[in-house]
Specification:
Elements: H1 2-43, H2 47-60, H3 65-77, H4 82-92, H5 99-119, H6 124-127, E1 143-148, H7 155-171, E2 178-180, E3 189-193, H8 197-203, E4 211-218, E5 222-230, H9 242-257, H10 278-283, H11 291-300, H12 311-315, H13 323-327, H14 332-347, H15 352-364, H16 368-379, H17 385-401, H18 405-418, H19 422-434, H20 438-451, H21 456-468, H22 472-485, H23 496-503
Parallel strand pairs: 1-2, 1-3, 3-5
Antiparallel strand pairs: 4-5
Helix pairs in contact: 1-2, 2-3, 3-4, 3-5, 4-5, 7-9, 14-15, 15-16, 16-17, 17-18, 17-19, 18-19, 19-20, 19-21, 20-21, 21-22
The chain binds zinc ion.
């Protein structure tokens, strides 16, 4: 009996030890085992399952480059959903100089470029609500609105307000839509002409404001209503003119749709308007909706909302764009430099070198608008023609980055005014090429090359004109000439078409 008991105990111990060893082995190699299965999913094109596992093992072994690369490659195979955007941005922001970081960064930059091309110039950044996206659900269109009657205002106030709603709908090709309703309780947007300037502005504790739009938000997330309160009269105690009411209402409806900030561009309805300062008011022009207003509303409604009237839109985000994927800086290391430069500017406000380096950093991050704002500011403080030439040249290039070729041309011409050098001439010819004016672009490139036959920018520009026109033999001739004058001209050039043209 005793013997048997000992035997059982011995076996039990052996089994326990074996189990412990097995578990230890499983733990030690678990990531490898999981990776093996993830690779299988990847090969069978089940990227979603593969990604889930890769993500898990990347978190488990964050230092492992191979897993990070596998996760990134897998993400790049998937449709660019909200989840994929979130993960790619996370990888790009790691700043670990890994292959994964480079791939993710490249994807984000390519997407941002495509996005700008698709929607054109816009002021999305100024449109957010404290950095969050606040907007109605597209499913709620047409948005019901109600105008409270007030016998003390001219009849045209109400008529023009209705036409302002119609303008938004028409100019966006029914992308946004409204419908008037007869009761306040049914409405999502409520317009109220309610009072005199003195009372109104003390109510809202503002210096001066002709109208104010206030969102009603429940639980910090659910948008219930937008209240637009408008003065009955202006600060001179006169009724607003029809044209003033039109601009004012178009502007406030912009707020009610989810534009929260204001632009510094007075051709946009979302310019500062009548807010706060008479300085802004004096610069305001009464203007209809422009293409930037329309682009911006279309972008706003393609972003995943943080605050919305539809709960589903807050939860099911896959069909929307992750706002940070479009807007946030990708490179944290650069971000640290940014903070340092801003600090330097604060300490040495006279030294424009710091401001220029900030503009340069923004440019490298694809933040062309910010870059230009700084440079425009600098142009007002300096008079040195050499420096002005350089700054306008860079401003023009930023506008090219934004695909705003008219502004690019205007600023390149300013640069040329300060310095009549081939760089500026060639830039102007290139902008004409971008605008599709191939005839003048060709003429100008040829003229520049006549005086400077080895000038790379002009030669490649002319070459691009010919490639666009499918005149490949001419393009090849120009390249051959360029190489003759400047054998290293194509050394750092990544465009394969040039190398291809030189092959035969
Ligand atoms: Zn406003």
């Amino acid at each position: 009996m005793k013997h048997l008991f000992r035997k059982i105990l011995f076996n039990f111990l052996i089994i326990t030890v074996l189990c412990i060893i097995l578990i230890a082995l499983l733990i030690i190699f678990s990531d490898k085992i999981l990776c093996f299965y993830a690779d299988k999913f990847f090969l069978s094109k089940d990227y979603k399952s593969a990604c889930t596992i890769y993500e898990f093992i990347t978190e488990y072994k964050p230092q492992n480059e191979q897993y990070k690369n596998k996760l990134t490659n897998c993400l790049l195979k998937m449709p660019l959903s909200y989840y994929v955007q979130e993960k790619l941005l996370e990888i790009a922001q790691k700043d670990d100089n890994s292959q994964a970081e480079k791939l993710a960064t490249k994807k984000i930059l390519t997407y941002r470029k495509y996005f700008y091309k698709k929607f054109g110039p816009n002021y999305l950044k100024d449109a957010l609500y404290n950095g969050s996206v606040l907007r109605w659900s597209k499913k709620s269109f047409p948005l019901p609105y109600f105008i409270k009657s007030n016998p003390n205002v001219p009849v045209y106030y109400v008529q023009i307000t209705k036409s302002a709603f119609n303008d938004w709908q028409r100019e966006t090709d029914n992308f946004v839509a409204f419908t008037p309703v007869n009761s306040e309780s049914l409405a999502k947007i409520i317009v109220n002409f309610n009072g005199d300037a003195a009372k109104f502005n003390s109510d809202y504790k503002k210096e001066y404001q002709a109208a104010i739009t206030t969102p009603v938000i429940k639980n910090g997330k659910i948008l219930k209503k937008m209240n637009i309160n408008v003065l009955t009269k202006n600060h001179l105690n006169q009724f607003f003119t029809p044209i003033q009411i039109k601009t004012l209402m178009t502007h406030e409806i912009g707020h009610a749709l989810g534009f929260w900030g204001h632009t510094k561009d007075n051709t946009s309805v979302m310019y500062y308007s009548l807010n706060n300062s008479y300085n802004y008011y004096s610069k305001r022009i009464d203007t209809p909706l422009n293409s930037m207003d329309i682009s911006t509303i279309k972008i706003l409604y393609s972003l995943a909302p943080d605050i919305s009237d539809n709960k589903d839109d807050l939860i099911i985000k896959d069909k929307f764009i992750y706002p940070a994927f479009l807007l946030n800086p990708i490179n944290n290391a650069k971000n640290k430099i940014l903070i340092q430069i801003i600090q330097n500017i604060k300490e040495h406000p006279q030294d424009i070198g710091y401001a220029l380096s900030l503009a340069d950093l923004y440019n490298k991050n694809g933040m062309y608008k910010e870059s230009n704002e700084i440079m425009m500011f600098i142009t007002k403080q300096i008079s040195d023609p050499e420096l002005l030439n350089m700054i306008y040249y860079n401003i023009a290039n930023n506008y090219i980055g934004q695909k705003d070729f008219n502004q690019a041309l205007l600023n390149a011409q300013k640069a040329l005014y300060y310095s009549n050098i081939p760089d500026n001439q060639s830039l102007i010819a290139y902008i004409k090429y971008c605008k599709g004016d191939l005839i003048n672009a060709e003429k100008e490139f040829i003229r520049i090359l006549k005086d400077n036959p080895g000038y790379t920018n002009a030669a490649l520009g002319l070459c691009d004109v010919y490639i666009t026109q499918k005149k490949y033999l001419k393009a090849r001739k120009i390249l051959k000439q360029l190489i003759k004058y400047n054998p290293q001209a194509l050394e750092n050039n990544e465009r394969t078409v040039y190398k291809f043209l030189l092959l035969f």
